[in-house]
Structures are given as C-alpha cells and as structure tokens.
Write a structure and sequence with these properties.
Number of helices: 5
Oligomer: single chain
Largest sheet: 6 strands, mixed
Strand content: 25-35%
Helix content: 10-25%
Shape: globular
Radius of gyration: 20 Å
Order of helices and strands: HEEHEHEHEEEHEEEEEEE
Number of strands: 14
Structural class: alpha/beta
Distance between the termini: 67 Å
Length: about 270
C-alpha cells in the first residue's frame, strides 16, 4: 500500500472520529436526554399506595441551558405522574440574571409542573431573592431549614430541607423518628456529619455527577468532586444517599459520562 493511500486512510479515520465526537457531545445532546433515576423504599408494614417524589436540581439557566429547554424538563417530570416535586437548588447560573420578561416566561413554564400533592424547593448557593421569587410564583413552597409532615396516598413521611449542614441540629431535633425521613440538601460536601440523625434517604445535587467524568480519574473539575459522596448512590450507616447529576452545566456546554437526571423516589 502506497504512502498516499495510508495518509488518506488516516485522514478519513480522523475525520470520522471527529464527526462521531461532535455528534455524541454536541451541546444540545444532554438537554434532550434526561435520565430518570428510580429508588424505592419499603418502610410500611401495611398495604398502602405508593407515593412518587420527583427531585430535580441545578438547572443553571443562561449558562448553556436556556429557557426554551425547560419544556423538555417539564414534560419529563410530568410524564412520571409525580405526587410531590422538589427542586433542590441552583435555578439560574452564577453571575446570570433574568429580565422581567424572561422571569415571567420561566414562571409560566414551571407552573406547568403538576404533581398531585405539592411542590417544594431548597435553595442552592446561586439562588438569590430573584430565584426564590420565581419559584414562589411557580407554586413551589420554601423548605429551607425546615421540615414538615406529608400525607400522600395514605403514606406519611417527613420532608426536610437544609440550607447548610450547620443548621441540621436545629432543624432535625423536632423530626419524628416514627416516619420515613426524606432529607434534601443542595451541596453534599460534609454530609457524613448527618449520619447520626434519623435520616432514611438524603438527596443532594450541586456536583452535576462531575459534569465531565472520566472513568478511573473522576471529574475534570475539582469543584464538582469534593468529598467522598459526590456522585451516584451510596449507603452511610442506615442512610441512603442519592447524588443527582442535575439538569444543566456549570463549566463547558457539554457533559461526558454524567447524563442529566431527575430522581424518582418511590415510598411505600
């Protein structure tokens, strides 16, 4: 085989690989493919109907994820027929702001999320007063550093929200040990400190699953890989831990080995 033919084959292979990479990792890819991660908890001895809790986090609007992309997110959430929906922090990207028209559009889209029972939110580090107002106007109830008992489909459990681990003692001291306790905290760093509280399941976001996650090496971004519990599902003593990949991005306009996800928690 001549050198020219070898060069042509090499060039063709390089072009094919580049086209494949561009197709696989194009910026819009993660927006249209939201993974539904399901976890089931059987804590009642009675024959009762199950309750479905959907959690989503880290939309980070206006970094790469745009307002129009919310349509697919809303559709994906509603397609799960949730009883309860919880937003777990970071609606708008750091350093970004919505104008009045954009905020109104976001509210109109988030209002279309229609669980049977209710909608709640926990703030992330980027959620300012403007983000809180959007969530409030979208019918989400503030659960920052508070807890409440929920009865849905004859299933009784507690929803607990923490802004910070430092607030745990104040919030958790009034939580009943007799119910299933579902705890939401945005940033999972340091959650080992919560293992001594009565928490059955903890859900966190913030890390985006690493956003660009290289097997054996971990996330390409140090700020998304702090702490032992920064991705996936774990068990710490009697506490189940779910770390969401979130929806949007924080660094580049693509994801690798960390697909966007919502979490479906079935309690029965």
């Amino acid at each position: 085989m001549s050198n020219k033919k070898i060069i042509k084959i090499i060039i063709a292979l390089i072009i094919s690989i580049l086209l494949f990479v561009l197709f696989l990792f194009k910026p819009s890819f993660y927006k249209n493919n939201i993974k539904v991660v399901t976890s089931e908890f059987n804590y009642s001895k009675k024959e009762i109907n199950e309750t479905k809790v959907i959690s989503f986090s880290d939309v980070n609007l206006l970094h790469d994820y745009q307002i129009k992309d919310l349509d697919n997110l809303v559709f994906t959430i509603n397609s799960q027929n949730p009883d309860i929906v919880v937003f777990n922090g970071d609606l708008i990207a750091k350093g970004k702001a919505l104008d009045k028209k954009q905020a109104k559009t976001v509210v109109s889209k988030l209002q279309q999320i229609k669980p049977l029972f209710g909608k709640f939110y926990i703030s992330g580090e980027n959620d300012d007063k403007a983000a809180s107002k959007i969530l409030f106007d979208s019918d989400f109830e503030n659960m920052n550093n508070t807890q409440r008992e929920v009865v849905s489909n004859n299933v009784k459990f507690n929803i607990i929200g923490l802004n910070s681990i430092e607030s745990a003692n104040k919030v958790m001291k009034n939580v009943s040990d007799n119910n299933f306790n579902l705890l939401f905290i945005h940033n999972p760093e340091g959650i080992e400190q919560l293992k001594n509280y009565k928490v059955d399941c903890l859900v966190a976001g913030h890390t985006l699953g690493g956003e660009y996650y290289i097997p054996l090496f971990g996330s390409a971004y140090d700020d998304l890989s702090k702490g032992e519990y920064n991705r996936g599902q774990h068990t710490l003593d009697n506490m189940d831990i779910i770390i969401s990949n979130g929806i949007g991005t924080k660094h580049k306009n693509l994801r690798f080995n960390a697909p966007s996800s919502i979490e479906k928690i079935i309690i029965k």
